[in-house]
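Page 37, continued from 36.
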């Protein structure tokens, strides 16, 4: 009976002379663990593919396509984000968004609680539908390496970007073989392929 009491007494003496286990945050600095997950921060390497938009469990990432300006914005809403880190984990390029240790995100204006990445839209040359972003297609071409010429339309875009071919306006009607070289959305490409196989 007396030994447990002595053990408690020993613990009390040790605790009394030990530094406090708690931290003084917010009056003092917060001690952040190296693997602490704060907010998701988009990086320059984001290609605007929109993969994380579809995956985010909280619906906190929005994709805004503006065909007038030809721009796509990927917007992270910190007021809706649950800091799960899924957008970082499933990112197409692996480093398009990073969880940074910043966590003091409270404020009075929701408009300020966001971060965004802007990319150039790639539109179907025939119907104007959104295909993806130029950065996304360029990234895919880099992954394909020497197999790039397999997709003629996309390869054609690359040659244009390099200034090796002229950016001429084609008359696309979807009923001739030449249209296979046009940059088309899946629906229009299907029509050309069907025509070509008749
Ligand atoms: S951290 Fe999670 S909740 Fe926040 S934006 Fe990324 S996927 Fe969505
Ligand atoms: S590159 Fe990564 S962060 Fe950027 S839109 Fe695609 S999945 Fe999201």
């Amino acid at each position: 009976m007396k030994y447990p009491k002595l053990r408690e007494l020993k613990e009390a003496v040790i605790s009394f002379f030990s530094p406090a286990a708690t931290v003084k945050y917010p009056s003092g600095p917060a001690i952040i663990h190296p693997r602490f997950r704060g907010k998701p921060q988009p990086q320059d390497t984001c290609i605007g593919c929109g993969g994380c938009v579809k995956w985010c469990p909280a619906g906190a990432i929005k994709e805004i396509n503006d065909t007038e300006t030809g721009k796509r914005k990927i917007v992270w809403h910190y007021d809706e984000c649950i800091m799960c880190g899924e957008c970082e984990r499933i990112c197409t390029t692996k480093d398009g968004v990073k969880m940074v240790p910043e966590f003091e995100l409270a404020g009075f204006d929701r408009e300020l609680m966001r971060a965004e990445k802007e990319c150039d839209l790639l539109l179907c040359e025939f119907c104007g539908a959104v295909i993806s972003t130029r950065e996304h297609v360029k990234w895919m071409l880099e992954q394909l390496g020497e197999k790039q010429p397999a997709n003629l339309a996309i390869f054609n875009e690359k040659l244009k970007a390099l200034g090796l071919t002229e950016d001429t306006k084609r008359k696309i009607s979807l009923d001739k073989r030449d249209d296979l070289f046009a940059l088309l959305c899946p629906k229009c490409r299907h029509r050309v392929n069907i025509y070509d196989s008749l």
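The first helix runs from residue 2 to 17. Flag for discussion at group meeting. The mean pLDDT is 88.
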